[in-house]
Structures are given as C-alpha cells and as structure tokens.
Design the sequence.
C-alpha cells in the first residue's frame, strides 16, 4: 500500500491540478443549503484539505471522506480536524453500498482515482446510489498513469513478475477510446453528462528529487519487494519511469540541467443524477 506521508509529500501535481479544475467548474457546481458531501479515494487527505474543503459552502452539513486503505484513513484522521467530517474505509467499487448512504449526498467527488479503479462500471453505479436525485458528481482522472507501461513490462519480467503488478494497471491502459467508454458507463449508470472536459497536460517537476519521490510514491509494490531485490528493482523502475510513454526529460538550454516532465490526458467530469 502507498505510504501516506510519502504520497502527501510528493503529490503537488494532483493537488495543483484539482485546485485548477475546481476553479474552472466553480460556476457549474450547484451548492445547496446544508450540503451532504461524499469523497472517495481521498488518499492521505492533502488534496481534500488544500483543494476541496476550502471550496465547500460554509454551511455544509456533513462531509464523509473515504478510501479503500485503512492506513490512509488512519492518517487522515490525525490531519484533518473538521468537526463535520467523518472518515471511513470504503471501496467505491464494492459490491454493496451501506443502506444509510443511499440517496443521501448532494455531491460526490473523486480526484485522480478512476484510473486506479478496476471495476469502473460498478463504481459509477455506486456513485449513482450515493447521490440524491438531482445530485452532482465531479471527477478528475487520467486515461492511464505513467507507471502503467512499467507495470505491464514487469508482468513478464524474469525477476519482477513474482511481484503482483497487474492490479495496479489502469483499467483502460492501451484502450483506443477511453473517453467514450467512460461516458457510456456513466450514462448506463443513470447519469446525465453535464460537462466533460479533456485536456493534454504536462507537469514539470522542480528537480530530480521531486520526480523520483513522485515515482516512488505511486508504487505500492515497493513495500513488498525483498531486501535482496530492492535496490535492483528500484533502480530499474526509476530508469523505466524516467523516459516512457508519458514521462520524458529535456536539457535546459540555460543551465544545462535535466528537467523532468510527466504528460497525461486529464478528464474532468461533472454529471447529474437524473
């Protein structure tokens, strides 16, 4: 499992992008009196604390934040001290939704999560169940992560195939048209697509240390690698992450330093429950 402190220290990319898109969509997100708000896949809570909570209406009734990782939720409970907030372990793609959560929430949020959810169809169905009629869903996510091709290569690697990477690969990695697949499943779940924006993004890391910290923070397999294999695995993983389908380096003309970049296709979705 991803370490909360490691992830929190190195996820500037996701927090900054989510602030940007919450601002872009602020006139389309319709708040109600005494809002009930649900967030899934909140991770270490940094994005919640810096991007979402400051933009909630001051008179919101309740906020329930969830993640499938108990480690993350334990960490969040010590770092977010909002009295109207409750934190709990919950997998958005689980077979059932707690009965008390059905038709309860005015808004459901998920930030940079859907590209890690294998059963997207079930996840969208559950989001629909959580929302009140007329409630809104707001999501940001990528088509795939820059680690996906590395994990895919490691599936058949003579040494690293013994470590389970398959569950980490995005559900539509290599898919020819993930946008329409997501749209189709949202509509099938009962949502009316209100706004769907898609944009190619490139993030420039401030330095090599920041890039490597980000790469290590998104790979939970590292915790499972044996001591004997660790240094070799880490070195090969970072080498493959440095230049692949989405990540690349450029030399700065002025300083001669190597600049690390990560490109991705960002999907931002606002959908209404009919």
Sequence:
């Amino acid at each position: 499992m991803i370490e909360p402190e490691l992830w929190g220290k190195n996820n500037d990319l996701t927090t900054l992008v989510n602030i940007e898109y919450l601002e872009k969509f602020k006139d389309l997100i319709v708040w109600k009196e005494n809002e009930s708000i649900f967030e899934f896949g909140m991770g270490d809570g940094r994005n919640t604390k810096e991007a979402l909570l400051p933009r909630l209406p001051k008179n919101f009734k309740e906020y329930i934040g969830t993640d499938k990782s108990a480690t993350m939720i334990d960490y969040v409970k010590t770092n977010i001290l909002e009295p109207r907030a409750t934190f709990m372990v919950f997998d958005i793609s689980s077979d059932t939704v707690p009965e008390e959560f059905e038709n309860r929430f005015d808004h459901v949020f998920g930030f940079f999560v859907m590209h890690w959810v294998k059963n997207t169809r079930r996840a969208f169905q559950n989001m629909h169940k959580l929302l009140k009629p007329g409630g809104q869903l707001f999501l940001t996510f990528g088509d795939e992560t820059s680690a996906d091709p590395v994990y895919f290569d490691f599936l058949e690697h003579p040494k690293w195939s013994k470590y389970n990477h398959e569950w980490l690969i995005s559900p539509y990695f290599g898919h020819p048209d993930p946008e329409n697949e997501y749209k189709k499943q949202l509509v099938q779940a009962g949502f009316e697509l209100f706004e769907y924006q898609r944009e190619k993004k490139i993030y420039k890391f401030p330095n090599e240390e920041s890039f490597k910290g980000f790469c290590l923070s998104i790979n939970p397999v590292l915790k499972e690698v044996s001591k004997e294999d660790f240094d070799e695995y880490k070195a090969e993983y970072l080498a493959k992450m440095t230049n692949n389908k989405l990540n690349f380096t450029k030399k700065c003309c002025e300083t001669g330093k190597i600049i690390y970049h990560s490109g991705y296709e960002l999907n931002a979705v606002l959908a209404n429950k009919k």
